[in-house]
Amino acid sequence: MNVSFTSFLFADLATEVHIGKEIRKVMKQRRITVVEVAAMLNLHRQSVYDMLSRDNIDVKRLALISELLDYDFYNALFGKND
Question: pTM of the entire structure?
Fold first, then answer.
């Protein structure tokens, strides 16, 4: 069985957090539409809808979305408070 490092590392987190819902929540707070996110990510809007329906996301894509939405999803997901 081939288990990726991130799958292993974040297995418990995936059961607790639906990243697509978290991204959608921040989009709503920022008043940013799916069409705008699609344009920022150079994706078709249906791809963004698909991404938002998932409970997991590629780490590189999450980093890019964090930058585009000006929101630190990593700290929010891991409950890291400085």
Answer: 0.74
